[in-house]
């Protein structure tokens, strides 16, 4: 009874506190359960009344944009992109309202993403009222007074959090970003010099692993320092220099090298676990503003550190880290830098310590559980997962239309992934990222991952009494799902969404949002970490030929501004040198459009003929043939006098 009274008092306090925008503090909030249910219900009704999620997002965008001319200068991102962001942000907030901890993390992450905007109480009120008025207009009597109060409370909480985060953390994050860029500047200079040497030999470096071609060449920016030194030493030996002379000439220029140098001087050269943190450190620093991503990196790192035996003293890493940064950023280093970097490491250390010691126990327990499964129990696990998932999320049945055999195979792979995450975490992160990018093409909403995880955990709980096995399965599967959700969210561009509709007008509308200089890459490359996928190739694989045809036409259209011409020919063949072979094998209907786009036609006519140029790139060079006689335009086809010069 006392707990119920305390909960009721907390609900009333939260509701009263959030009647206005509160920017003095930022804590977890717990709204009344009936209010949360009402807000979530009205949100679902609003989504169901809209023709699509994109349309719902654009309605919210228009409502906010038109609500006050004073804030229109804040909208610098294309309308379609902003509408998608509004939808994603609001949906995540509403879904997490029943979980105060998760809600706080989501709102904090969104606050970090808005550090460059001057968020004020007045602007928060404008945004809040615009959204509430839109919902009231769309839902009519279904938008009750409780729903209005709930929406105002949650939007006040979000707006106040944005102001608080910007005031309290913006300075620290800017210091971390600027000093990290300075510390890595020398490393980039070294890479550029080495890159020029490689370019002289005609070598190129891929921007990421091709998901659609299964390329396993990982391009990591965090190479271990041993590899760097080994490369430097072997190069010097090839020049005939003595090993001792080479070692004396090695001067730490990168953060990793400086860290290893200082670690050896300070007596920590035998702490091999520091290599694992170094490999993840760049990702942690660059994603410090994203609580979810930072937690994901720390979870993966904890699995790697668990492979090392002996004592792991995280404070040792902090001492070496600060010493290395002081050496690399000597001119700008101040007490503010000390505070900012210490704050970052304390957050990382807290996350790592909360997990350390558990992975070893959970891995063994999960392996014992897997070994104890009979053929019948495996079949039960695979079938029961979907029963419980469909019970938790009935609409999920619309996305799982494969055969029972295929569904059972997927469930089995999911279970295997939870074990492999413990055994080889770094490889699994790459594999899961590749899988997530493929799910972008499938167009599966990320809201289904949570009920799938819940259903799978419930099944395992019903099959074992070993709490360590259950905890290990739940923790590992949760990490897998978080990586998948992040990859899907980062890879879900408006171009990929347009491909799923297979509508050329939607594709053209999406691509029109891109800057001229980046227009080609919007349809040729999506990168998440070291993994990448080609929207163009994905359109071919998924059978979205109308979208693929529109992409080719857009890529091979000449555009210009005052300073430059823009033509996607080079970008297309650099990204996909095998594009002609691929179209011949999988999409012959697209070949005429491609070949037509490679022909430039003069606007001048002489003697009923137009001069044209056929653009073709041979390995290592570009050849242009100008047809001296021209092409006879006969109904848009090839005339009897047409010819291609010899060698073409």
TrEMBL record:
Amino acid composition bias (Low complexity), ranges on this chain: 216-225
Start-end of Acidic residues biased regions: 191-201
Gene Ontology molecular functions: heme binding; oxygen binding
Positions of region (Disordered): 189-240
Domain Globin: 30-167
Protein name as catalogued: Globin domain-containing protein
Originating species: Polarella glacialis (Dinoflagellate)
Lineage: Eukaryota, Sar, Alveolata, Dinophyceae, Suessiales
């Amino acid at each position: 009874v006392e707990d119920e009274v305390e909960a009721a008092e907390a609900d009333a306090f939260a509701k009263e506190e959030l009647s206005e925008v509160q920017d003095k503090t930022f804590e977890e909030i717990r709204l009344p359960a009936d209010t949360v249910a009402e807000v979530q219900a009205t949100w679902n009704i609003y989504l169901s009344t809209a023709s699509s999620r994109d349309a719902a997002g654009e309605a919210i965008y228009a409502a906010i944009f038109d609500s006050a001319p004073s804030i229109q200068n804040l909208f610098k991102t294309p309308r379609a992109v902003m509408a998608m962001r509004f939808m994603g942000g609001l949906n995540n907030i509403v879904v997490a309202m029943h979980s105060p901890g998760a809600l706080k993390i989501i709102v904090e992450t969104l606050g970090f993403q808005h550090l460059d905007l001057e968020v004020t109480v007045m602007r928060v009120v404008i945004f809040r009222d615009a959204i509430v008025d839109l919902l009231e207009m769309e839902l009519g009597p279904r938008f009750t007074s409780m729903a209005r109060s709930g929406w105002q409370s949650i939007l006040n909480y979000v707006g106040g959090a944005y102001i608080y985060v910007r005031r309290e953390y913006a300075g620290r994050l800017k210091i971390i970003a600027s000093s990290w860029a300075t510390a890595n500047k020398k490393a980039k200079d070294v890479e550029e010099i080495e890159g020029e040497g490689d370019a002289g030999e005609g070598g190129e470096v891929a921007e990421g692993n091709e998901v659609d071609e299964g390329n396993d060449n990982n391009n990591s920016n965090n190479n271990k320092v041993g590899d760097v030194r080994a490369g430097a030493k072997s190069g010097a030996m090839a020049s005939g220099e003595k090993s001792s002379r080479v070692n004396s000439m090695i001067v730490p220029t990168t953060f990793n090298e400086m860290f290893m140098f200082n670690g050896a001087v300070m007596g920590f050269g035998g702490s091999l676990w520091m290599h694992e943190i170094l490999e993840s450190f760049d990702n942690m620093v660059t994603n410090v503003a994203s609580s979810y991503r930072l937690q994901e990196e720390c979870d993966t790192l904890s699995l790697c550190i668990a492979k090392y035996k002996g004592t792991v003293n995280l404070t040792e890493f902090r001492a070496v880290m600060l010493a290395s940064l002081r050496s690399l950023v000597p001119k700008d280093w101040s007490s503010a830098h000390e505070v900012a970097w210490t704050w970052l490491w304390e957050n990382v250390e807290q996350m790592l310590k909360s997990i350390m010691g558990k992975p070893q126990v959970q891995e063994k327990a999960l392996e014992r559980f897997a070994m104890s499964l009979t053929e019948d129990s495996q079949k039960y696990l695979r079938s029961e997962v979907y029963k419980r998932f469909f019970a938790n999320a009935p609409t999920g049945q619309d996305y799982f239309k494969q055969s029972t055999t295929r569904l059972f195979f997927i469930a089995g792979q999911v279970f295997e992934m939870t074990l492999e995450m413990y055994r080889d975490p770094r490889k699994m992160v790459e594999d899961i990222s590749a899988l997530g990018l493929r799910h972008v093409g499938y167009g599966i909403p990320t809201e289904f991952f949570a009920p799938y995880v819940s259903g799978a955990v419930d099944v395992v709980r019903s099959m074992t009494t070993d709490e360590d096995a259950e905890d290990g399965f739940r923790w590992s599967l949760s990490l897998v799902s978080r990586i998948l959700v992040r990859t899907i969210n980062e890879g879900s561009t408006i171009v990929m969404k347009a491909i799923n509709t297979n509508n050329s007008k939607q594709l053209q509308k999406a691509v029109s949002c891109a800057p001229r200089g980046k227009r080609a890459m919007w349809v040729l490359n999506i990168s998440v970490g070291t993994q990448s996928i080609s929207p163009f190739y994905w359109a071919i694989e998924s059978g979205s030929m109308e979208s693929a045809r529109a992409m080719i036409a857009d890529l091979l259209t000449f555009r210009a501004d005052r300073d430059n011409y823009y033509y996607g020919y080079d970008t297309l063949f650099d990204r996909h040198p095998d594009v002609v072979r691929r179209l011949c094998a999988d999409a012959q209907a697209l070949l005429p459009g491609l070949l037509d786009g490679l022909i430039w036609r003069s606007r001048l006519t002489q003697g009923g003929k137009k001069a044209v140029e056929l653009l073709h790139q041979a390995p290592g060079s570009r050849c242009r043939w100008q047809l001296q006689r021209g092409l006879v335009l006969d109904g848009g086809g090839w005339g009897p006098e047409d010819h291609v010069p010899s060698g073409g």
